[in-house]
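Help needed: design a sequence for this.
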């Protein structure tokens, strides 16, 4: 999972360099993973094949609840990103970077099924969003307003960006 320091560093670049920051969400992320080992399950209720009630099904795709599901999703996502020319950073393997030119780049931060896409050129970030939508069922959330319960507020004229966990803190206080 992406480190909090990675999010803070990249968002500081967003404010300082006046970069675009978009957000995407992967629908049913864990269902995209491909199985590497053989796993069999009992036929689910309501899907029993008459006369073959004692048979089992072999999984070909990952399912929520499998201990392999998060890893298989990450491997599939990493493969798609590397296939598009992105590289994982050595500091944080959930941060993918692609250098477009000497002063242009795109950064993608992945947290399970949520991602931030950062870049100078909206056409380049839109191209990445389109490519990802061709590989996965995605929801384009537009300008990033919140990630991991952290609200993002921005003043582009002043090159300032604020992060707030006010709502998260209130929920924690109510719980305890």
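Sure. Designed sequence:
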């Amino acid at each position: 999972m992406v480190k909090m320091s990675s999010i803070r560093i990249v968002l500081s670049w967003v404010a300082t360099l006046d970069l675009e920051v978009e957000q995407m969400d992967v629908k049913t992320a864990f269902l995209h993973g491909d199985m590497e080992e053989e796993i069999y399950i009992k036929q689910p209720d309501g899907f029993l094949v008459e006369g073959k009630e004692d048979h089992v099904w072999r999984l070909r795709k990952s399912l929520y609840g499998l201990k392999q599901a998060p890893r298989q999703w990450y491997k599939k996502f990493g493969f798609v990103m590397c296939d598009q020319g992105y590289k994982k950073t050595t500091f944080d393997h959930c941060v993918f970077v692609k250098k477009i030119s000497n002063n242009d780049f795109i950064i993608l931060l992945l947290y399970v099924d949520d991602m931030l896409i950062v870049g100078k050129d909206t056409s380049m970030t839109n191209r990445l969003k389109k490519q990802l939508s061709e590989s996965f069922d995605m929801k384009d959330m537009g300008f990033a307003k919140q990630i991991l319960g952290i609200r993002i507020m921005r003043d582009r004229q002043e090159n300032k960006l604020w992060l707030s966990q006010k709502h998260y803190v209130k929920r924690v206080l109510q719980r305890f």
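The CA atoms of residues 85 and 98 lie 6 Å apart.
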